[in-house]
Amino acid sequence: MSDRIEPNLGIDPTAEPAPAPVPKPAATATPSPNSRAALDQLARIEDKMARMEEKFARTEALVARAQDGLDRAATRVESAARSVDAAELVTTVNRLRVQVAKVPRLGGLVLTGVVTAVATAILFVLLLKFFPGLLK
Predict the structure, then answer these.
(1) What is the DSSP code (8-state) at residue 26?
(2) Which of 20, 53, 70, 71 is the most exposed place for a label (fewest CB within 10 A)?
C-alpha cells in the first residue's frame, strides 16, 4: 500500500446531483433605472466605437492613397533613371569636350587676325602694282 494521501475536495462521488436552479419569475416588466442607465451608456459606447471605426477606415484609405501616390512617383523616377543611360551620357560629354578643345583660344584668334591683315595688305599692294587701272 502507498503512503500517498489523495486530496479531498469535499465532493461525494456517490451522492445524487443537486437539483437545477429554478429561474425567478420577473417581478416587473420595466427595467430598473440602474439597468436603463447602463444600457444607455453601452449604446453611447457603441456609437463612439462606430465613429472611431469610421475615422480609422478614412485614415486607412488616406494612407493607402498616399502609398499609391508614392509608388507611382517611385515608378516614374525609376523609369526616368533607366531612360538616361550613363554610358551614353559619358560618351556625349566626351565628344563635346573634344569639340570644345578644337576651338582656338585667344592667342590663335589674334594670330589669325594678324596673318589675315598682313595677307590682305600684301594682296592689295600686288593688285595695285599689276593692275593699276582697276582703282580708277
Answers:
(1) P
(2) 20
Name the nearest CA neighbour of 88 among 96, 100, 76, 79.
96
Which H or E run includes 114? helix 106-130
| pLDDT tens per residue, range 50-108 | 999 999 999 999 888 988 888 898 888 888 777 767 778 788 889 989 998 888 888 88
In contact, 135 and 128? CB cutoff 8 Å: yes
**Rounded Cα distance, 103 and 96, in Å:** 11
Q: How far is CA 116 from CA 4, 122, 124, 129, 135, in A?
A: 129, 10, 12, 20, 22
Question: Which are the contacts of 31, defined by CB distance < 8 A and separation ≥ 6?
Answer: 39
Q: CA–CA separation, 12 vs 7, rounded Å?
A: 13
C-alpha cell of residue 111: 594670330
